[in-house]
Amino acid sequence: MHSKVALVPCGSYEPERVYQALRQGLDLVGGIGKYIRTDEKVLLKLNLVREADADRAVTTHPAVAEMLARILSEEHYSDVSAGDSGGFGSSIKSMEHLGMREELTKYGCRMAAFDEAVRTAYPQGIHAKEFMLARDVVEADAVISVCKMKTHALEHITGAVKNQYGCVQGKHKAAGHTRYPSAESMARMIVDLNLLVRPRLYIMDGIVAMEGNGPTSGDPVPMNVLLFSTDPVALDSVFARLVYLDPESVPTEGAGAQMGLGTWKEEEIDLVTPDGQLSMGDAVAKYGRPGFRVNRKKGKAEGIMNTITILRFLKPAPRIDADKCRKCGVCVESCPVDGKALRFSKGRDHPPVYNYRKCIRCFCCQEMCPHKAIYVRGRR
C-alpha cells in the first residue's frame, strides 16, 4: 500500500494564510473527520522543546497551533488541548511566551502541562517495553502530532517521528538518553513510542524551518511548506528529500521502515498538492533547498564506531564557544549522565568543562543551550 503525503505551499505565518493552507492540507488527506470523531478527546502534540521566540524556528509556530485549534472548533470538536514535554522548563510557559494562551482559549483549546508521568507498559515493543508517558497523552483519545521542520545533532533531522519523544514526561526524558545513547538505539526506541502512541495524523510546520545547529541553536530558513500525512516515516522522507538529504541516512527513517511504522521509499509515496499529484523530483525542483545545512553523513559508520570503544573518542562531540557562553548552567542541568559529563570545574566565571570520557554524545547540552554557545564537531 502507498502512503499519502500532502504538500501545501504557504509563504508566511499570517494567520489567515496558515488557516487556508491547513484547510487545504486536511482536505487533501481526507478531512479531519476521517481520522477523529468529534466526541473524542483530542491532543495537539506540539514541538515546544524549550522557551524561545517564534521567529527563531525552535518551536511549532503559534499561528499553526492556533489555526489548527480554530479548525477543530469549527468542526465541532469540543475537547481539545495542546502541549508538549520540553527538554527544559515548562511547556505552559513556552506557550505563554509564544502568546498562545489567548488564541488557544478563544477556540476552546486548553494548554496541557505534561507535568505528571504514568508508567505505561508496551510488551509488544521491539526495542522498548515501557515508557513514562505524560498523563495528558495517556488520557487523550486521539493525538495529532504537530511537528517542526528542523535539523538535529543526533538524528540528522527532527520531524514527524522524533516529535513523539515529547510524549515522555519531562524528567524521564533524560533517562532515555542514557539508556539509548546511540542515534540508532534512540531511533528504534522512538519508533516503538510512535507505535504505542499512534497519532492519528502528522502535520509538519515547514513554513520557516531550522538548518545548521538544530534543534534549538540553528538558523531560520524559509521552506514555505506545510506537510500532512498519516505516515510519519513518509512525511519525514519528503522533508529529507526537500533538503537534498538521503532518507536512508536518517536513523529514524531506517528504523521506522524496518519496524513497520511507515515507508521512506519514493515509489511507495503518493505526493499530492492543491494542484494535483506531483512527482518527488518535481516537488524537490519546485520546493527544495539544495544548500540546506544538515548533517549528510551515513549512519552506518557511527554504528560500527559504537562497537569499538577506542573509537568513541573520534566521534563528534559537543563543544562550547567561550565567546557566546553566558555561564547560565542550563547545559550542566540538562546533562543526563550520572555525575554529569560537564561541570564548572574552573568556577562560574568560566564556561563549563567537558569530561569526554563520561560524555555519551546525546547532545542534550547542545539542544538545551539558550544562547547558541554549544555546537557539535568531530574530534581528532
Report a brief summary of the structure.
This protein is of the alpha/beta class and 380 residues long. Helices cover 30% and strands 22% of the residues.
Structure description:
- By secondary structure, this protein is α/β, with parallel strands linked by helices.
- The chain folds into 2 domains: 285 residues, Rossmann fold (3-Layer(aba) Sandwich), CATH 3.40.50; 66 residues, Alpha-Beta Plaits.
- It has 13 helices and 16 strands.
- Strands 1, 2, 3, 4, 7, 8, 9, 10, 11 and 12 form a 10-stranded mixed sheet that branches. It has a two-stranded antiparallel sheet with strand order 5-6.
- The longest helix has 15 residues.
Rg from alpha-carbon coordinates: 20 Å
Strand count: 16
CATH superfamily of the largest domain: LarA, N-terminal domain
**CATH hierarchy class name of the largest domain:** Alpha Beta
Distance between the termini: 46 Å
Helix-strand category: alpha/beta
User: According to CATH, what is the topology of the largest domain?
Assistant: Rossmann fold
Q: How many structural domains in the coordinates?
A: 2
**Shape, please?**
globular
Overall pLDDT: 94
Largest pleated sheet: 10 strands, mixed
Estimate the strand proportion.
15-25%
Which SSEs are present, and which pair or pack?
Layout: E1 3-9, H1 15-28, E2 42-45, H2 62-74, E3 80-83, H3 91-97, H4 100-106, E4 109-112, E5 117-121, E6 130-134, H5 135-138, E7 142-152, E8 156-158, H6 170-179, H7 183-197, E9 201-211, E10 219-229, H8 232-242, H9 251-258, E11 269-273, E12 276-277, H10 280-287, H11 300-306, E13 317-320, H12 330-334, E14 342-343, E15 353-354, H13 364-368, E16 374-377
Parallel strand pairs: 1-11, 2-3, 2-7, 3-4, 7-9
Antiparallel strand pairs: 1-10, 5-6, 7-8, 9-10, 11-12, 13-16, 14-15
